Automatic annotation (TrEMBL), chains A, B, C, D:
Enzyme Commission number: 2.5.1.54
SUPFAM superfamilies the record matches: Aldolase
Protein name as it appears in the record: Phospho-2-dehydro-3-deoxyheptonate aldolase
One of the GO biological process terms: aromatic amino acid family biosynthetic process
Annotated source species: Thermomonospora curvata (strain ATCC 19995 / DSM 43183 / JCM 3096 / KCTC 9072 / NBRC 15933 / NCIMB 10081 / Henssen B9)
Enzyme class: transferase
InterPro entries: Aldolase_TIM, Class-I_DAHP_synthase, DAHP1/KDSA, DAHP_snth_FXD, DAHP_syn_2
């Protein structure tokens, strides 16, 4: 941490900063320039944060210079991690496709979507039983009934299940059915929920908040990690900007940036980023090319009657092209499409 | 709702749209132009939403023309509402000051902050016992112990208490101590929590999401209202933009816009908007001048050692100016500073 | 400037940084911590900028700690400036109203708008002869004919003229008619134009870029100042954000922030910020309350047929309320409405 | 265009809208619903725009339903265009690499950068002689001397030259040296400049404004096209958002979206988007994968002493990897790297 003194700061002001830092158990190094003085701090940064140095006389600015997250940082963990979900790896070397319906509606719709997913090369099934919707009048998901449908479809297809949880109170229930718990964009700073999934003993898919910085995203992951769970996969799903031609703006640069800052795998959701079916395949290509560890896409057997986000779901006619894409493109970048684990394939 | 057909749409495409709308129980009016045709829909908009008209052949765009919120809308409720909190009104005609520490730290700090608040003219006490913090390593609040401190300070000062709840599971507990439940910016789309406070039987202070549109903010209020609670006060607290000179960008225009769209009271948080003590008084003046029904500010007896957001808290030396401001400015705009209810003043 | 070395930096890396800084004529102070070292630089910051220190081995970050603008900064010029336009002051102590039509359309329309402006208490007339329009098919202004109309209306009403210039090549022409040159938001980083108006010998009204930071706005002012012209008035006119309920988001906090960083006067444009007539008066009140040195508003005798931005212009029925507002509100904040200079009033 | 009447609109209000539209030469179709009426307009939209329908009694909203640009739209020109620059094609079927130094500094630096560009597979040379810089104290480019250096290097290497013009007054001069004129992000709404390059008889590289919507970008292109020049290449270079980990946020989705709306070629600038050398290659891969018609990158023989944007330039060590990438990746997506035209190769 660096404290920048203003040009008007007195020697007493500088001494006061040094004193308060040393009292807090830190060390302070003073560098005097012609017009300004800066004080470098060494020690427990969280503790310095509570000193409110910014309020002291003569202080112009306080600048943080180390990452505020520790467990998910790559600084102390240079090798990139692999997270396994029901035996399926997500991480460097592979490209994992997760696919399924946005929302679970009926057993038949879910099974057919899962078959589409499998045909496309997916090794994990996505599908929402609890849906956070902007309108209280919109379909909110089937709840536990939806979880049971997902479990049935897993038994039928062998695909482990990724599903969202929206309330700390539901974590245990959802974890009893799911192979991976998804935290959605609207809950990216729902800290109670992050802590609850941190204790649930299941891998977590953590979507970036729609207005969350990359640093806040990693801090959210740190909340989960701090409860003892490091099986976290980060998911870039578009951020909110002034541009309205797309539902969100896919921040494709966030993939390499997050991979450099954190050892956790990073995947991309091209369906929710663009919000348009015609953008899903181009954005999937971009995600794989930029180095994402996986892609999660919406598919639906009858998108014209989907109860949620039908406008962005891929349809039967797209599956063949998606399958070709995820098979042929990863090898160009030194990766291979993740294969279903044998044990599950027999399920 | 209006369906805009593309120039390439055939008569069959248009007929298909009309047919699906009529099947869903709506009416469709076709207007043919030289290069385009538009179809106006009348009926249950939520149901049309699930038709995925946007996916039909020949459809270029689907445009919603009525507000998606009903209970909080001013369309069917032209008079602006007054919400009462422990007997203190918030609404047209008055200007209510809510003040207190960002976080409850100790009984003494809370009492002294409440005395500062009262001296400034506040009739409601704010203070957080459950604090949502970006870092898991930062102070997270005292929990129920903090609620007890707030209750004690209420008994001592007569100020009803506004405090945040961050988890649906805690709503009953917090409601047993608080006079008003606050939903923070990070939970503005935590729909489980919104529903839970909608059933708690206490007024709600609903902060706007830091990246929430005004429409989304009103939809969040609709979630609460739908559970039977219309005692909702909206709070503009700054939105996230590219500008980093302030912590957030206070969207001052949102006050008159929200007041025009909804009958609910709208207040402003100048402390969290700017994130800087030197901006609190100027932004308070702007808030009152623009027509806000109230203002909520952070005060702290010792901001230099505050455990949360000390840099933005007003100090003893600011109280006199704040008091003058909230007493003298509202009458210029036809409002008066809310007075403490007698019953409570005697408490 | 502070150079933050990474944990992996060697002594040789640190020595290299020190050496390159000293070679460039600066001084470098090294502070060693447990896990990191920081190097404080003193000297010519612009020159250090070209050293590309960020690219050197072991360097993690380079942080600038002094303002990159000098002439417009308040650091070396603590008193706030007054800019005079045709004898009319803009600055501390006064509140100046600038009003007129968005675009000059006809002599009659301009005269009537000027009379509305005067009736409202304006002492300066705004009106565009050169209009930057997003569409090449929209009305682009009358050009020199519009300037002549403005000069005629000035002669008739005594109101000095503020008008936009959009091309460096036109600066001389516009300056020969206008009392103040306006730089619009789309030209906030048109550096050729900024330099040209810096040399034109007339005061400048500099609108903030719609996506410009406060720092970039002050840098744009520095471009003008560097050519010898310090008669610059800054104008906050709303920034571009995700919120679409208003045309732009008025950044009301930018007024006190810019006044603290720069000695230049700062005014507000409530018409272009909100883009809605119903927001003009509330935002004008907020602007005066926050401490703006002036306000610039669109008025039009027949907004329903205006060729530009009719939806945001005040009409006859609003003038009385605006007049009352700008007369009664500034004294509440220790300012008085600027009066027309006698000499001009007789013109 | 669709006019949405409010629930309070009377028959007279509706009749007034129909009347004003018909008077302006348009047609109006009225659709009456249970709670609302909508009026569809057919005719000259620009003219309707000046009617200010939004201000009429009973009107709630006015919605535009056709693209405001015509010449650059794909509606009337379904085949995607190829733009030729000094014989080098940019468009569908090919992937064109443009490379060179951000700024021309010396003959030697420019020649060496051009040789790096050529080694990487570039067929066009970029390089700025006129540099728009945020600070007036930063290097502003060599001007005509820089243009001469570019011409000499073209003679030596055979690479046609792309260079920026920042002032309408300089267009003729720059066009006399350059093969393609570049409009930078800060001038994306400098309409005088757009019109001037529209008349210059040279292809134009049009960067997107850093806060420009895709629609505004296409409107800027329309300004150029309207002056008779349809040889326009669109360049996505990142937009301004709240995220500060990268210099700008590359809006990768804008590539397919713009290609769907317009017949013009669309390329990507990964150097200015990310602002970091380590992101250039990943973003180049994403750009090619998403379907960009070309990529423009900064290269510099000595980035550590570059006078402009050294932190984002590729260096000698990156050239081999870039060369491999642009040769091997386009064929995966049905494109081939553009080859240098023979005539020029001999130049």
């Amino acid at each position: 941490m660096v404290v920048v003194m203003g040009p008007e700061a007195t020697e007493a002001d500088i001494a006061a900063v040094v004193s308060i830092v040393e009292t807090a158990g830190g060390e302070a190094f003073v560098s005097r320039g012609v017009s300004r003085t800066i004080v470098g701090l060494v020690g427990d940064v969280e503790q310095f944060g509570s000193l409110n140095l910014r309020r002291m006389n003569g202080v112009r600015d306080v600048i943080r210079i180390s990452a505020p997250y520790k467990l998910v940082s790559r600084e102390n963990h240079p090798d990139r991690s692999v997270v396994r979900v029901g035996g399926v790896p997500i991480g460097p070397g592979t490209m994992t496709l997760i696919a399924g319906p946005c929302a679970v509606e009926t057993p038949d719709q879910t099974l057919r979507a899962a078959q589409m997913a499998k045909a496309a090369g997916a090794t994990l099934l996505r599908g929402g039983a609890f849906k956070p919707r902007t309108s209280p009048y919109a379909f909110q998901g089937l709840g536990e009934q939806g979880l049971k449908i997902l479990a049935d479809v897993r038994a039928e297809t062998g695909l482990p299940v990724v599903t969202e949880v929206v309330d700390a109170h539901d974590v245990e229930l959802v974890a009893s059915y799911a192979d991976m718990l998804q935290i959605g964009t609207r809950n990216a700073q729902n800290f109670s929920l992050l802590q609850a999934v941190g204790e649930a003993g299941k891998p977590v898919l953590l979507k970036r908040g729609m207005s969350g910085t990359i640093e806040e995203w990693l801090m959210a992951a740190e909340y989960i990690a701090q409860r003892g769970n490091l099986d976290i996969v980060l998911c870039e799903r578009g951020i909110r900007t002034f541009e309205k031609a797309t539902r969100n703006t896919l921040d494709i640069s966030a993939v390499p940036v997050a991979q450099r800052l954190s050892h956790l795998p990073v995947i991309v959701d091209p369906s929710h980023s663009g919000g348009r079916r015609d953008l899903v395949l181009p954005l999937t290509r971009a995600a794989i090319a930029v180095g994402a560890d996986g892609v999660i896409v919406d598919v639906h057997p009858h998108p014209e009657t989907a109860l949620c986000d039908g406008a962005q779901a891929l349809v039967d006619g797209d599956v063949r092209e998606l399958a070709r894409l995820v098979r042929e493109l990863p090898p160009v970048f030194g990766r291979s499409l993740t294969q279903a684990p044998d044990a599950l394939a027999m399920g």
